[in-house]
Design a protein that fits this description.
The structure is a single chain. The chain is α+β, with helices and mostly antiparallel strands. It has a single domain, classed as Immunoglobulin-like. It has 3 helices and 12 strands, in the order H-E-H-H-E-E-E-E-E-E-E-E-E-E-E. Strands 1, 2, 4, 5, 7, 8, 9, 10, 11 and 12 form a 10-stranded mixed β-sheet that branches. The protein has a two-stranded antiparallel ribbon with strand order 3-6. A hairpin with a 2-residue loop joins strand 4 and strand 5. The radius of gyration is 20 Å and the shape is elongated. It starts with a helix and ends with a strand.
């Protein structure tokens, strides 16, 4: 009986240890397009006059606006990050955009959230981090003024630890 209990305890510790440590060694690359890019890519498939086609593509491009931009930095050797973050407005919706050069050390339970004055705003999570490398989009909720967003954070919810932060200008 004691051997079974010890075996179960060791197994539980190994599973929890794997869950906590394995993300540091596993990279997940994402290559997500902007929503406007997806729509523009579909336009050439439509059989229309070249002038109409270029007008549609240019009208989609006109609905894109970069509002703010910043670069990710880390906090220490384990919690590091680099790359570009932007706030963009596309067709009236606002997004946080991580560009292709985005790279952060992976970890357990990472989320994308907002911050202000060097502090993470708990409860501001926009979503679970899609990947620790590459381009990805996170929609800002309605009612959040994109011009008031000062910082974008990659935050570990499980341990309340920051991994990377981009100050936006």
């Amino acid at each position: 009986m004691k051997k079974n209990i010890i075996f179960i305890c060791v197994l539980v510790v190994l599973i929890i240890g794997y869950w906590l440590i394995s993300p540091f060694f596993i990279n997940k690359k994402v290559s997500e397009d902007l929503p406007v890019t997806k729509n523009a890519a579909q336009v050439p498939d439509i059989q229309v006059d070249k002038d109409v086609q270029s007008a549609v593509v240019s009208s989609l491009s006109d609905q894109f606006e970069e509002i703010k931009k910043g670069n990710f930095t880390g906090f220490d050797r384990v919690h590091t990050g680099s790359g570009t973050a932007r706030i963009v407005s596309i067709n009236g919706k606002n997004y946080i955009r991580f560009e292709e050069d985005f790279n952060v050390n992976n970890g357990p339970d990472l989320y994308v959230g907002l911050g202000k004055n060097g502090s993470y705003l708990k409860g501001s999570e926009l979503g679970k981090l899609k990947g620790n490398i590459g381009s990805q989009n996170y929609e800002l909720p309605q009612g959040v003024d994109p011009k008031s967003v000062e910082e974008v954070w990659v935050w570990c919810k499980a341990f309340s630890v920051p991994f990377s932060r981009a100050v936006l200008n």
